[in-house]
Amino acid sequence: MIVLVFVGLILLAHYYLWHRLVRSTTAPGRLRKALTWGVVVLMALVVATFASTRADFGTWLAWPGYLWLAMVFYLFLFLAVLEIPRAVAVVLLRRAERRGAPAPEPVAVLAGTPAPDDVLAGAPSAAEEPVPPPAGVSRRLFLGRAGAAVAGVGALATVGYGVSSALGDPVIEPVRIRLPKLDPRMNGLRFAVVSDIHLGPLTGRAHTERIVRMVNGLEADVVAIVGDLVDGSVARLGPLARPLRSLESRYGAYFVTGNHEYFAPGGFLEWIDELDELGVRSLRNERVEIAHQGAVLDLAGVNDLNGTSQGDGPDFARALDGRPAGRPVVLLAHQPVQVFDAARHGVDLQLSGHTHGGQIAPFNLVVGLQQPMVSGLATIDGVQVYTTRGAGFWGPPVRVGAPPEITMLELHA
């Protein structure tokens, strides 16, 4: 069902683009036919790209397919916005055409002479057929081409900016958080938080190496990887993950699953084993103690909600119950929406990802319909939640209005 809906939306979007970029800008003929077939091929490319990446093959399709998908989105957006001025322009053109139409000249008819039907109807005679306008671009065709040019330039500039943002260095976001239960001896405890790295067909080993280098440069006490590390199997992406072995921190690197780990063709468990080999500990509905300067903090992690369908869902009671009263707990949970369960178990701070900050504006408005927050720090049901925008991207290698992020989070009493 989801596949049919996706294909239907892709079909409708491309039909709209064809209507505005091809039909409204060309006259019937070879050029229109060629451009029409071009739109059909590009539509098939998008569908094939999704099918091949989900099946863990066809990397060569990913770049053109995902870039065109981003162009489709922004072309659609720009053209939709232009519909209003376009409609106004069409109305004005129609009025101008009506005002400019010459009135029929009066025809003298002798008294008592029957008037010809064509005269009575006010129509010109065969000898007075109106002369067709000279060859050239009509006003409507000009209007269509102008709109297409504006939308094309706008979409191309936006996607170009988004690609440079997505493929550039993540922004280091310094965040200071006060926890009332924190022992003052733990003041300044630092967490390097990174999420949504999304190792996949469009990321190389250099993507992971850059993230590891930047995280190590923060000299954090704890490294927290909050889900959606991969978009594929260990067989294909294992070499891209190996730089994680070089992560440096005083008390270790920890990981919780995101929804995309459960989409991996080889299964999520092979990634748990792979990360263990790389020295990254997975917190699977469990907690560990972080001892710092004679004080202790609980660090817990729960599985992502999408694990439920595979018998690996979140278990807050297992992760959080039975801990010492009065000790602060920091929870790693991929989705911000998990905070409502966290609040019932007395969590002090939740670290999440998943949203990408919207990744491609204005999707940030849509994310807010599904999650209680899009990015940054908020207090929900008495629990402080920090949601990072993520260090990678999913789908199109494009980020607009939501640059990639690595968070340097510092705790204080």
UniProtKB/TrEMBL annotation:
It comes from the Bacteria. Pfam families: Metallophos (PF00149). Keywords: Hydrolase, Membrane, Metal-binding, Transmembrane, Transmembrane helix. The chain crosses the membrane at residues 6-22, 34-53, 65-93. Residues 189-357 form the Calcineurin-like phosphoesterase domain. InterPro entries: Calcineurin-like_PHP, Metallo-depent_PP-like, Metallophosphoesterase_sf. This is Metallophosphoesterase. It comes from Actinomadura luzonensis.
